[in-house]
Design a protein that fits this description.
The complex is a heterodimer.
Chain A: E1 2-13, E2 16-27, E3 31-35, H1 42-50, E4 57-62, E5 68-71, H2 85-90, H3 94-97, H4 105-117, H5 133-147, E6 151-155, H6 163-178, E7 182-186, H7 190-196, E8 199-204, E9 206-212, H8 213-216, H9 219-231, H10 240-243
Parallel strand pairs in A: 3-7, 3-8, 5-6, 6-7
Antiparallel strand pairs in A: 1-2, 1-4, 8-9
Helix pairs in contact in A: 4-5, 5-6
Chain B: H1 2-6, H2 8-12, H3 14-39, H4 43-64, H5 68-92, H6 97-119, H7 122-130, H8 138-167, H9 169-175, H10 179-206, H11 208-218, H12 224-248, H13 255-273, H14 279-290
Helix pairs in contact in B: 3-8, 3-10, 3-11, 3-12, 4-5, 4-6, 4-10, 5-6, 5-10, 7-10, 8-9, 8-10, 11-12, 11-13, 12-13
The chains are: A alpha/beta, B mainly alpha.
Main location (chain B): membrane
Subcellular location (chain B): Cell membrane; Membrane
InterPro entries (chain B): ABC_BtuC-like, ABC_TroCD
């Protein structure tokens, strides 16, 4: 059963495609890394899957009735906002509590449990502005835990994060995999990918290779990916293949 | 003696009681909205929208004189129009939203002053620009109380998505489609409170009752719920203090500016002494580092 199915998907901004004619499916319960050079369309693909970016053509089908959680690169989060770690994490309850729902004792217990799972116990009453980068990422992972989604999308979750935090958060990713959730992570550290991700999609606007990580991350494929992004002309006609 | 200064004016004079009720109503809803404006980095947007209300209210004045419904409807219409237009211009052109807002409010201010001058006297103009908090009739008081009630209920209902939209708009988008609706409702609340404030404090000062207590409160707490309550408290305190001082000073100190000045004093004291990044506190930390 597939969790995410892409059919001839083209995504882009201002009619210039960033992801080109991508087809394939991500099986439910898989742990897959998306890698590729800068400008390969990795983050764009995640935005497409979350539905915040509408496809230019083709389609994305998510398994019915599955919840989706998405951790973007943290650019949009306002760290100076006066709010406590506890409240930031509790936002993960949105699906159950919504705008009006009460956060009862059981839910409060879940929040504390999630905070403990990422090793932030004792930080509940700290303003988020006082957290380090690694602690912030821990808090965001706690929020993901509470979202309790079947499909989890992570965009560069370990960038600029210390090794200890990366190891702890990777353990959480493995735990999700063990609970047969589908995890899709955009990553750039090949070492992490080889060690922890059974499957990989190598993206360079088009799929260069997609499959078992060892088969995908060959020197030839990586070189091909870099060449494809470099040679891609963003001022060309909106879609080369359609024009041909 | 103390009674004469602090309680006497309100016990003795109806217009002082009315003014007090008016500024209380204004600060109880305006200050929390100011907090959200500040946290969304929209302080200047509030200022620009306050100016934008002027030509609408002036048109109402031109048609019907000092008529509360006419000026209120005109102000609401102009406020909404500028809020939406400025957003649209910022999205459709190279101009950033602050620049397009500045353009709109400069035009609005000049237009409003011109329209009032067409028919009225210089005193009418002063009334429109600075309000007359000591002349609140029943209609205005009901409007102020109504706006405060609606605003507080709306803030309570939208509290979660509003906070979420400030902290992490991307996350809200990923879990809910309410972001756009929340933003528009919030802008509507801003316009509503500015129009209410306009009737008491005039276009130029109305925004002061929103922003100054909010900015002052930020120097005392790093928690959003306390911030909202503290801002409302500072607003009420400034309203009361401003009225007392203006009464004590006699006719030389007009009440509206006195209220805003009192809020200004609260802000300056907070800036100086506040426990969250106040200047005095910073100087202490600085000397600690140098040693």
């Amino acid at each position: 059963m597939s969790a995410i199915r892409l059919t001839d998907l083209t995504l882009g901004y201002d009619r210039h495609p960033a992801v080109h004619h991508l087809s394939g499916e991500i099986a439910a319960g898989s742990l897959i890394a998306i890698v590729g050079p800068n400008g390969a369309g990795k983050s764009t693909l995640l935005k497409g899957i979350t539905g915040t970016l509408a496809p230019l053509s083709g389609g994305i089908a998510l398994a019915k009735g599955k919840r989706l959680a998405y951790l973007p690169q943290s650019a949009e989060l306002d760290r100076s906002f006066p709010i406590h770690v506890y409240d930031l994490v509790a936002m993960g309850l949105w699906n159950r509590a919504g705008i009006f729902g009460r956060i009862g004792a059981a839910a409060a217990h879940k929040v504390e449990h999630a905070i403990a799972a990422v090793g932030l116990t004792g930080f509940e009453r700290r303003p988020i502005g006082t957290l380090s980068g690694g602690q912030m990422q821990r808090a965001l992972f706690a929020r993901l835990l509470l979202q309790d989604a079947e499909i989890i999308l992570l965009d560069e979750p370990f960038t600029a994060i210390d090794a200890r935090t990366t190891a702890d958060l990777l353990a959480l990713v493995r735990r999700w995999h063990g609970e047969s959730r589908t995890v899709v992570a955009v990553l750039h550290d090949m070492e992490t990918v080889r060690r922890a991700f059974p499957q990989t999609l190598l993206l360079a606007r088009e799929a260069v290779a997609w499959g078992a990580t060892a088969d995908v991350l060959t020197p030839e494929n990586l070189l091909a990916a870099r060449r494809m992004v470099e040679s891609f002309d963003s001022h060309a006609a909106p879609c080369r293949r359609d024009a041909a | 003696m103390l009674y004469d200064l602090f309680i006497g004016p309100f016990a003795e004079f109806d217009f002082m009681r009315r003014a007090l009720v008016g500024v209380m109503a204004l600060s109880v809803s305006g200050a929390p909205i100011g907090v959200f404006l500040m946290l969304r980095r929209m302080s200047l947007t509030g200022d620009a929208m306050a100016h934008a209300i002027l030509p609408g209210a002036a048109l109402g004045y031109l048609v019907a004189g000092f008529s509360l419904p006419a000026m209120t409807i005109g102000g609401l219409a102009a406020g909404f129009a500028v809020a939406l237009l400025a957003g649209a211009v910022a999205r459709a052109t190279v101009l950033k939203e602050d620049a397009s807002l500045a353009a709109f409010y400069l035009i609005s201010l000049a237009l409003g002053v011109t329209i009032v001058s067409l028919r009225g006297s210089a005193i009418d103009l002063l009334h429109v620009l600075f309000g007359n908090v000591l002349a609140l009739d029943d209609g205005v008081l009901i409007l102020l109380a109504g706006v405060a009630t609606v605003s507080l209920l709306a803030l309570a209902a939208l509290y979660r998505p509003l906070v979420l939209e400030c902290v992490d708009p991307g996350f809200l988008r990923s879990v809910s489609r309410s972001g756009g609706f929340v933003h528009l409702t919030f802008l509507a609340l801003v316009v509503l409170n500015l129009v209410a404030g306009f009737n008491a404090l005039g276009t130029l000062l109305a925004v002061g009752m929103m922003m100054l207590p909010a900015a002052a409160a930020r120097f005392w707490t790093a928690d959003i719920t306390r911030l909202l309550m503290l801002a409302a408290g500072f607003g009420m305190l400034s309203g009361y203090a401003g009225l007392v001082v203006s009464y004590a000073a006699g006719s030389s100190l007009p009440a509206g500016p006195a209220v805003i000045l009192a809020a200004g004093v609260v802000y300056l004291l907070s800036l100086l002494l506040g426990s969250q990044g106040g200047l005095a506190r910073r100087a202490l930390i600085w000397s600690h580092l140098e040693r």
